[in-house]
Design brief:
Layout lengths: L2 E3 L4 H9 L5 E2 L14 H17 L7 E11 L2 E3 L5 H11 L3 E12 L2 E13 L4 H9 L20 E5 L2 H5 L3 H10 L4 H6 L2
Parallel strand pairs: 1-2, 1-3
Antiparallel strand pairs: 3-4, 3-5, 5-6, 6-7
Helix pairs in contact: 3-4
């Protein structure tokens, strides 16, 4: 079976590997700018569908394409990747002591069968001091991540709790993905049992 991940994200690649799926990567060439006037959940769903469509057009017949897009939202406003260290510090200050939402749009496509969903996870940060924020920014970890943090790295030290799928916060809702793949005839547990 030809499974294609439409993403360069090392976190998404790691999660697919953990699922035991054989896959290859094709990076989609689309405009991902976030200036669209959609609520965050709809926005990421639309972008993931565009990514899947762009890669499916290059893939062979019968290929299963997996695409995702993740954003952090605070009070309905999307926080993308920080432009620089001061932007990262601003985002982390805004998230300090508050609950925000992480939305991932997920599309799985096989030929004309295209399934797109949006997953939401609530994440609560503990109150952070200016010194803690500066120290975290100095690690460099916030610079390539939506909302300026990575829950799977040093950012775990900032998170007081989550409600929802942990892997969604990493950028790929694994349980939801497993369900969509099952609907398309790909049984992840059966594949894992064949190893």
């Amino acid at each position: 079976m030809d499974i294609i991940l439409a993403s360069q994200s090392p976190r998404r690649r790691e999660l697919l590997e953990r699922m035991g799926l054989p896959f290859r990567i094709i990076t989609p060439d689309i405009d991902e700018h976030m200036e669209r006037e959609l609520p965050p959940g709809e926005l990421v769903a639309a972008i993931s569908a565009e990514k899947a469509g762009a890669v499916a057009a290059q893939a062979g017949p019968g290929a299963v394409v997996i695409a995702a897009d993740t954003v952090v939202a605070l009070d309905g406003a999307v926080l993308g990747k920080p432009a620089d260290e001061s932007d990262a510090a601003r985002m982390l200050s805004a998230l300090s002591g508050r609950t925000h939402q992480v939305f991932t749009g997920l599309t799985v496509a096989c030929g004309a069968d295209v399934r797109t969903v949006s997953e939401e996870t609530a994440v609560t940060f503990r109150p952070l001091t200016a010194e803690e924020i500066a120290a975290y920014v100095r690690t460099g970890e916030p610079m390539d991540k939506a909302g300026a943090y990575g829950i799977q790295g040093y950012g775990a030290l900032l998170v007081e709790g989550i409600r929802g799928d942990y892997y969604n916060v990493m950028g790929l809702p694994v349980c939801r993905l497993g369900g969509l793949l099952r609907e398309l005839g790909v049984d992840c547990l059966a594949l894992a049992g064949q190893k």
